[in-house]
Design goal:
The protein is an alpha/beta fold and 544 residues long. 62% of the residues lie in helices and 11% in strands.
Length: 544
């Protein structure tokens, strides 16, 4: 994360060094001014030097503030792009281990915390220069002053180390709890209609906010740590100043140092005492470390690898070669081998849990098999380039998630031509209801009143342009019988001569298909036309 600062971190570091140099030089300059005033001569040049140093320090602070904000903004944008790309390219399997709300929190809030890593680290390192320089300069003035200063600063450093150790753990726990709250809220928003219908809004509110006491406790612990460390620094800091002033007073009386040198020594002692103010910087580093850790878990999502091959001419010949899928110790598909000729309508049927949706996901390469491989027109799906694969394969689901600002964008997220958008909508009978909307295809997606069946038709329209394989995972389950029959006829009479793999629970859909793949407990029980299978009582039982 620190490396992503690019040109900003050197600028921040340079300004920090300039600020430290001004901080170290100013006490000596002012001390010389005091001695010159006491002597009654030569003080003008020292006052001019002091004014110049103060002006330089102000300019460095302004540049540092701008550079710090710009560095955090650019790094946050880079990290968010990377995390979003990782989540999207990881596919459904990659993000399975994260809850939606927690992922949103990691990409939004935690990314900002993580982006503070570079500036906070540079600031913390630069903050070491003033006390170290003060120690050296005090040694030049008088070794006894340096000894008194070193003893006090050592106590301040011990306080800061204890604070850093305790803050890191609490910051991570706080961010994780925030993510869990966001995850619960996301779940509730997804099922808000069900919650309202069930009359459980009060219980759901308590469930979402049930983690607030834990969050509160972590916040209290954070403030207690900060207060304890602040109090310790507040006690130790003045001790550094008192120790240096006592030693300095003795040395002044003895004639070993001048009044101006005593003044400079007191200022250097204040710098050492000011180490206690580093608690804020250390707190930023702790939050950045926690943010980096949570972002790193998302960045570690394994993306779906793609090959570089294109597909030869063909009509969607689909082959499963000893495909098995195992997840969490459960066998979802067991040694499935299929040879489905291109251009056919293939229905996939079976009881609940038979593996129908898993078979569809593997065919569309939304997940990869544990063993075996799937080929489309003779080319393994894993060897096909991303662009070629998504042009060839289209997917529609039972509950499609529509994306885009308008109805038109939800059908054509890749900005295909309006003619093709309209053709896809007409083929899936989505045009029937879209044309009745006030703004047609330019109607806002969020404001469009749609039933479940209408959403399914938009999902079908989005998948329709695929030129080799259409995978429909129960994608017509919410349609009325008449519309489902119309779309079924469109799929059966598809003039594009591509393969249609349709997961269905309806016997009429299976009857219109050229072939039926009958699954049972992850295995292929039979592959045959619906009419040939209908005499089997177990097959009829699949449809209730």
């Amino acid at each position: 994360m620190a490396k992503r600062g690019r040109g900003w971190l050197p600028l921040i570091g340079l300004n920090a060094l300039i600020g430290s140099a001004v901080t170290l030089a100013l006490p000596t300059i002012l001390g010389r001014s005091v001695d010159s005033i006491v002597a009654g001569t030569g003080y003008t040049q020292w006052l001019i030097a002091a004014a110049a140093a103060i002006g330089l320090g102000i300019v460095a602070s302004l540049i540092d503030a701008f550079a710090g904000a710009a560095c955090v903004a650019e790094t946050t944008a880079w990290l968010r792009h990377r995390l979003v790309r990782q989540v999207v390219r990881g596919g459904p399997e990659g993000s399975r281990g994260f809850e939606t709300g927690d992922l949103v929190t990691r990409v939004s809030a935690n990314a900002t915390d993580a982006a503070q890593a570079g500036p906070a680290a540079v600031t913390a390192i630069a903050a070491i220069a003033p006390p170290v320089g003060s120690l050296v300069l005090l040694a030049l003035i008088d070794p006894w002053l340096a000894a008194a200063f070193f003893g006090g600063v050592l106590l301040v450093i011990l306080v800061l180390l204890a604070f850093a150790r305790r803050t890191a753990d609490v910051s991570l726990a706080y961010q994780e709890t925030q993510g869990r709250i966001a995850a619960r809220l996301s779940e509730s928003l997804t099922g808000i209609r069900t919650i309202a219908a069930a009359g459980t809004t009060g219980r759901e509110e308590r469930r979402i906010l049930g983690l607030l006491p834990e969050l509160h406790q972590q916040g209290v612990v954070t403030w207690r740590i900060l207060a304890r460390s602040g109090a310790q620094a507040a006690v130790v800091g003045p001790l550094v100043l008192v120790a240096v002033l006592v030693v300095g007073g003795v040395q002044l009386v003895a004639g070993h140092i001048t009044a101006g040198e005593l003044f400079a020594a007191s200022q250097y002692a204040v710098l050492g005492a000011g180490l206690g103010t580093l608690t804020g910087v250390i707190g930023e580093i702790a939050r950045a470390k926690a943010g980096v850790q949570r972002a790193a878990e998302v960045a570690a999502i394994t993306t779906v690898p793609h090959g570089s091959l294109t597909l030869p001419a063909g009509s969607g010949h689909l082959t499963f070669d000893h495909v098995s899928v195992v997840a969490d110790g459960n066998v979802l598909l067991n040694d499935v081998s299929l040879d489905l000729p291109g251009g056919l309508t293939v229905a996939v049927v079976g009881p609940s849990g038979a593996g129908k949706s898993v078979l569809a996901a593997v065919a569309a390469r939304l997940r990869d098999p544990s063993t075996g491989h799937v080929s489309l027109d003779g080319v393994p799906l894993q060897a096909v380039s991303r662009h070629a694969l998504r042009r060839a394969v289209g997917c529609a689901f039972e509950r499609p998630q529509l994306v885009g600002r308008t109805i038109g964008e939800s059908i054509a997220p890749n900005a295909i031509s309006p003619v093709r958008t309209l053709a896809a909508a007409r083929a899936t009978h989505a045009h029937d209801f879209v044309s009745r909307l006030p703004n047609g295809y330019f109607t806002s997606l969020r404001k469009a009143p749609m039933s479940g069946g209408e959403r399914q038709r938009l999902g079908l329209a989005r998948a329709w342009p695929a030129n080799r394989l259409l995978v429909l995972d129960d994608a017509t389950s919410s349609l009325d019988t008449a519309t489902e029959r119309q779309i079924g006829r469109t799929l059966t009479e598809d003039r594009q001569h591509r393969t249609r793999l349709i997961v269905t629970h309806r016997p009429a859909t299976a009857a219109r298909a050229d072939l039926v793949v009958w699954l049972d407990h992850g295995r292929v029980r039979a592959v045959a036309p619906h009419a040939d299978l209908w005499n089997n009582t177990s097959y009829r039982a699949v449809f209730g």
